[in-house]
Design goal:
The protein is of the alpha/beta class. It is built from 9 helices and 8 strands. The protein has 2 domains: about 5-145, no CATH class; about 155-295, Alpha-Beta Plaits, CATH 3.30.70. Helix 3 (about 75-100) packs antiparallel against helix 4. The protein is elongated. It is an enzyme of class 2 (transferase).
Amino acid sequence: MKYSDNKLQQQTAKNTLQPVFSAVFVVTLFLIVTSYIYFYPELDNSIFFNGVLTDAINLLIVVAIFIIVQRANLSVFAYVNLSIGLLLWSAGLTFDLLDEVLIQPLFIGIYVEDVLRTAGMLFTCYGLKLTIGDLTSVQQQLSKELITDYLTQIANRQFFYQYMQKNQSAPYTILLIDIDFFKVINDQFGHDRGDQVLIELSSLYAKALPNNSVFARLGGEEFAIYLPGDDRPKACDLSEQLLSLAHTIELAANRTVSVSIGVSFKAPGEAFNEVVKRADQALYKAKNSGRSQYYIA
């Protein structure tokens, strides 16, 4: 997955905030313990080991989560909310632990502990919500990248073949398209111009194709189109349109892009790889017959 400038900025901001939150966390807990011992040093007459152990374990768990958050790759907003939440939660648990061994003023037990713990939980829950949202966005982006051609932003070969395998029962039409003399375009005009031709052609075709079609780049200068149904006149009209659209891309004075197209229709009981093979053979004949034309298998 490519990092955008925004993500890099967020990572930089998080790296700046991390030592601040870590220092505040340690100093806060230290001040709570030292202040508590200084002002309320009297031991509780009834110390219960189970209560002390439980509160200590709870505090250690939240501290461990805080450490994990500091090391995690999170968005700045999620990181800040989680860090604040876990800091407040830890402070509340620290007061709770001290209450097990020292005599605590009533207002701390009634207000301070509960307020800090509740506020910490709320911030932490909101931070978790943001984190889950970020993870969902990343998952969606990764899923899209797996089926999208990185250069042209249309479907890639993997998605095209998977789609065809799942749609074998109904009749369909396959068009294989190859840019004529693409190597010559790269050699004479440079690979940047070659890439731009691929992008422009993909954009033109994507806008011209019906909504129920699937358009993909198979690799290099080769594209494929899946059309539901086996309407021959419709396939011929579309092929003519695609040939014309290619000519709208200018390379130089009096020189435009051209493509060759091979067309095949699914026969009853025919496997998809055989349909593609016949379209590829038709494409080969179109190229050998002078290019800039379509041929039907």
